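Marked as duplicate of an earlier ticket. Keeping the data here for the record.
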Amino acid sequence: MKMLGQVAVLLVMLATTHLAIVRIAEHKADSLAGGEAFRLDRASSSEGRTFDALLGQLGRWNEDALASSLLALQQRGRLWVAPHLAGQRSAISVSALGLVSRIYVRRAELVDRELPFPDLDVPDAAQREFATIRLAGTLYHELQHHEGLDDEGATYDREIEWYRQLRERALAGLPEERARLTEWAIDSAIESALAAREKATGAPPI
């Protein structure tokens, strides 16, 4: 009986220690994302409504695999909103101590939604579509990191290829004028990703 009691105490101590380490990992992850981050809640938040709208758009683009992956990530509590994400980044994948793995999205990407090119003579609808495409592509990019791809150049290559495949699906069956605006939005997203890749790696895609 005494030995059972000692085992029980040991198990409690191990569980408490593990919980403390997890809390440290969570704090470290939150710090890397700029602090004051919170879990993306689909039920009643403006961030959640934007996320749901993105999932709906991915469905209309026949991007069901990405939509399912992002939804699963959110349901597992691994998609977080970062109000103070530094470095002009839109999102970041963080793994802390091998215990906490999350994707943090800059809050402004989900709620402010300002026109990305206010001084450019391009219709608002095309600019907003570009913003949606870039948000989807950014999440796709960070999902690759989350799933274990560390090489930044290879990750950008996958993101750029995703945009190119999206063009084939998104343009199919659209009226000419709408197709022209959507094509501009996708091509602009590709150009933006190419520039980001070169800045991050010092080299363009091979």
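See parent ticket for discussion. Residues 2-32 form the longest helix (31 residues).
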